[in-house]
């Protein structure tokens, strides 16, 4: 309940922690008693059939969706409900969306420096230098002065990742980052994400890319019908799924 | 999930926390009070100047008043309907000229469209009221309203129709041509019917402008709603109340037409509307 | 009356009339824009009474005919002991009606932004006001250039209402009515005014297109 949790924070305090989170959309119970924690440096991948509530779960963490009950903690601090406190905590958690959501009226570089300048109050020069480094890290530095509509979907999504990184976030949430991409562009985005994971970024990824989950995840969470059904290492989950629902799900995607 | 998309209007403000909820509650109370105060001031003004007195409003208890206004309304609707048909016909011709591919026809049409869109309806009305009779042409009052109003609208109609034609996918035309259809029947039977469906909402909205423009009928003494209101005012001592009621009638009619336009837009959306069709 | 005679007798008045029309247009449009923004703010606010109030405002002034509104201002308001000059009456009528449309266009501009960008801005930690300033306003304004250009032209057309009240100096429409009731102006007198209106509309349209090409947002 208190902000003094900071002082008791230690290495084992999760970056993201959800306790007994419940949420309804009208009569639909979309999140049922969700308990989940993500440790520093972990890559947690959430999979599950569509409508299972995985996207909603991801969006509750920076309060793009509200919750009905339960707690969401960022490094032990309870997620505030509004105001400057909420904005401050959001700035520490990056987010990458399915539909990229780059600012359509700004150039690529201006997309990346908006947060650092307006929120972190960095100078334009400093923000720009760092933004260029980030853009070259994700391989789109040559496009810096174009506007989003001139870029391919894969390039836009890599810019969105750079935009999130520019805030030096404690963790990044990926909400189905490759679902809106043409097949040939999925790889370039997953490569960037894999690189990030190897460098120790804390990540929570909602995805349908099973190969990515298998190779990169520290932990896989399987959701269905609004609850977490199974939670395991990728090897265990993909080779020996315990629940019937997870087995059905894995069979159904292998059928394709 | 992503299918639960709200409009930007509602997304701008995120779900409020307790503090924001309190602020919103206070703002709600304050704004309600302000609106109530505004209404109070207006009503008080009516009361103090005696405009709430029964004698100003008793006109409306008489059946004849409503029959007279109803007649005027009929005049308005008749003029608007005829002007609408004329504007549509002229607009269609201008549109065909413009897309005909003939350079000269194209220029003439563009010039006419720009001219009719850039000149106020009132100026056209004065043209028909003051200038035309000097050439010995005696038009009935009805046409002195309908013609200027439709001239004023036809340019917009032409452009609306053209945007509809541009929105019909090329493949439709090519498919019809490959069936061996002649150019004009390709246009009339395949392209235009689709184009027309796309622009029904925009055309209905233009009808609102036509209805509004017919209110200048009093300039040429055509008995429309506004003109009959003026007659009523000169017979009874009830200017404010009559003008107010007439304004409300106009607002109600145009509101209904706009609703029809929105409903039509909902219906036409069922046909895949190509991107980039809305101006 | 030939064009030479007409111009020598009424040339000055035409110039005055043109400036009157321009002045009315510019003032009305400026007022309409300010009101339009204010009404739009009410419409997107989370305060329900303001939303309802703004919605009613829009419906009234979108749908009331200019003549009807002008009659109320000129002839009905004095019964409430509110006396306004003819110029002010025309100005109000020619501002209130476009203000409703202005708000409609701004709302359309806001709606093209999409919720995704607003969520993205929020997840970067931008405050509400920062989102409005940096994301919403720039995009809404840039995508309403063409509608607002058309609105400026239709505001000019609305100012022809000035011909319905005695005004000195007259506007372009009032002058034609005046010339034709006092002399034999004929088609020429009408055409001069019409061309001045048209030329203004074309120039506004061209400038609007130019600005739009510069600031248009690729999507």
Structure description:
The complex is a heterotrimer of chains A (256), B (279) and C (219). Chain A is of the alpha/beta class and 256 residues long. Helices cover 39% and strands 23% of the residues of chain A. Chain B is mostly helical and 279 residues long. Chain B has two domains: 15-46; 63-267, MetI-like fold, CATH 1.10.3720.10. Helices cover 76% and strands 0% of the residues of chain B. Chain B is built from eleven helices and no strands. In chain B, helix 4 packs across helix 7 (141-167) and helix 9 runs antiparallel to helix 11 (239-268). Chain B starts with 7 loop residues before the first helix and ends in an 11-residue tail after the last helix. Chain C starts with a helix and ends with a helix. In chain C, helix 4 runs antiparallel to helix 7. Chains in contact: A-B, A-C, B-C. At the B-C interface, helix 1, helix 2, helix 5, helix 6 and helix 9 of B face helix 2, helix 3, helix 4, helix 5 and helix 6 of C.
**CATH top-level class of chain C:** Mainly Alpha
**Alpha-carbon distance between the termini of chain A?**
47 Å
Task: Spell out the helices and strands of chain C N to C.
Answer: HHHHHHHHH
- Can you tell me the number of structural domains of chain C? 1
SSE string of chain A, helix = H, strand = E?
Answer: HEEEHEEHEHHHEHEHEEHH
Number of helices of chain C: 9
Oligomerization state: heterotrimer
Query: How far from one another are the termini of chain C?
Result: 55 Å
Question: Which architecture name of chain C does CATH use?
Answer: Orthogonal Bundle
Which protein chains make the most extensive interface, counting residues with beta carbons within 8 Å of the other chain's beta carbons?
Answer: B-C, 57 and 70 residues
Structural class of chain C: mainly alpha
Quote the average pLDDT of chain C: 94
Task: Using the CA coordinates, give the radius of gyration of chain C.
Answer: 21 Å
Number of helices of chain A: 10
Q: Report the sheet with the most strands of chain C, covering strand number, pairing sense and barrel closure.
A: none
Question: CATH H level of chain C: which superfamily?
Answer: MetI-like
Nearest-integer average pLDDT of chain A: 93
């Amino acid at each position: 309940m208190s902000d003094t949790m900071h002082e008791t924070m230690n290495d084992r305090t999760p970056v993201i922690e959800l306790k007994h989170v419940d949420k309804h959309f009208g009569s639909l119970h979309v999140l049922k008693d969700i308990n989940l924690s993500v440790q520093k440096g972990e890559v947690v991948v959430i999979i599950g059939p569509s409508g299972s509530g995985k996207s909603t779960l991801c969006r509750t963490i920076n309060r793009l969706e509200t919750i009905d009950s339960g707690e969401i903690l960022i490094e032990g601090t309870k997620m505030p409900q509004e105001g400057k406190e909420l904005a401050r905590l959001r700035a520490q958690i990056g987010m990458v969306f399915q539909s990229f959501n780059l600012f359509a009226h700004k150039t690529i570089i201006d997309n990346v420096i908006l947060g650092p300048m307006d929120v972190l109050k960095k100078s334009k020069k400093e923000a720009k230098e760092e933004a260029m480094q980030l853009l070259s890290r994700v391989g789109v530095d040559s496009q810096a002065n174009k506007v989003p509509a001139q870029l391919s979907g894969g390039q836009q999504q890599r810019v969105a990742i750079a935009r999130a990184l520019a805030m030096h976030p404690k963790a990044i949430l990926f909400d189905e980052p490759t679902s809106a991409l043409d097949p040939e562009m999925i790889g370039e985005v997953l490569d960037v994400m894999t690189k990030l994971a190897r460098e120790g970024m804390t990540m929570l990824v909602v995805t349908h890319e099973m190969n990515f989950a298998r190779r990169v995840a520290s932990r896989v969470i399987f959701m269905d019908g609004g609850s977490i059904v199974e939670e395991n290492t990728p090897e265990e989950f993909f080779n020996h799924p315990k629940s019937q629902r997870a087995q059905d799900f894995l069979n159904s995607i292998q059928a394709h | 999930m992503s299918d639960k998309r709200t409009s930007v209007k509602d997304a701008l403000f995120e779900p409020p926390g307790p503090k924001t909820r309190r602020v919103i509650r206070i703002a709600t109370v304050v704004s309600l009070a302000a609106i109530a105060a505004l209404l109070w001031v207006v009503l008080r003004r009516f009361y103090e100047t005696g405009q709430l007195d029964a004698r100003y409003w008793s006109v409306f208890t008489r059946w004849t008043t409503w029959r007279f206004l109803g007649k005027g309304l009929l005049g308005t609707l008749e003029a608007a309907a005829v002007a609408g048909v004329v504007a549509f016909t002229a607009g269609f011709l201008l549109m065909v000229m413009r897309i005909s591919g003939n350079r000269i026809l194209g220029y003439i049409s563009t010039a006419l469209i720009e001219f009719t869109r850039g000149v106020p309806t009132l100026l056209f009305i004065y043209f028909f009221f003051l200038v035309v009779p000097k050439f010995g042409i005696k038009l009935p009052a009805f046409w002195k309203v309908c013609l200027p109003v439709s001239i004023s609208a036809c340019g917009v109609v032409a452009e609306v129709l053209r945007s509809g034609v541009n929105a019909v996918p090329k493949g439709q035309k090519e498919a019809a041509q490959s069936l061996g259809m002649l150019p004009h029947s390709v246009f009339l039977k395949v392209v235009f019917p689709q184009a027309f469906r796309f622009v029904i909402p925009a055309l209905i909205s233009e009808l609102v402008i036509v209805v509004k423009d017919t209110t200048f009928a009093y300039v040429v003494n055509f008995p429309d709603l506004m003109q009959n209101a003026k007659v009523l005012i000169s017979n009874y001592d009830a200017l404010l109340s009559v003008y107010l009621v007439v304004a409300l009638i106009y607002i109600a009619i145009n509101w209904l037409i706009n609703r029809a336009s929105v409903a039509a837009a909902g219906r036409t959306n069922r046909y895949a509307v190509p991107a980039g069709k809305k101006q | 009356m030939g064009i030479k005679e007409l111009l020598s007798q009424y040339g000055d008045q035409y110039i005055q009339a043109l400036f009157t029309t321009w002045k009315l247009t510019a003032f009305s449009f400026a007022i309409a824009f300010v009101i339009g923004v204010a009404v739009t703010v009410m419409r997107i606010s989370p305060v329900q009474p303001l939303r309802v109030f703004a919605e009613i405002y829009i419906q009234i002034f979108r749908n009331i005919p200019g003549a009807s509104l002008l009659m109320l201002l000129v002839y009905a308001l004095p019964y409430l002991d509110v006396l306004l000059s003819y110029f002010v009456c025309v100005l109000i009528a020619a501002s209130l009606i476009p203000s409703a449309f202005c708000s409609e266009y701004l709302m359309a501009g806001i709606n093209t932004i999409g919720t995704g960008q607003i969520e993205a801005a929020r997840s970067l930690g931008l405050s509400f006001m920062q989102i409005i300033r940096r994301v919403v306003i720039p995009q809404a304004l840039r995508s309403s250039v063409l509608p607002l250009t058309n609105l400026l032209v239709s505001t000019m057309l609305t100012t022809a209402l000035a011909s319905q009240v005695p005004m000195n100096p007259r506007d372009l429409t009032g002058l034609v009515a005046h010339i034709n009731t006092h002399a034999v102006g004929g088609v020429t007198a009408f055409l001069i005014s019409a061309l001045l209106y048209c030329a203004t509309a074309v120039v506004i349209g061209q400038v609007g297109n130019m600005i739009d090409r510069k600031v248009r947002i690729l999507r």
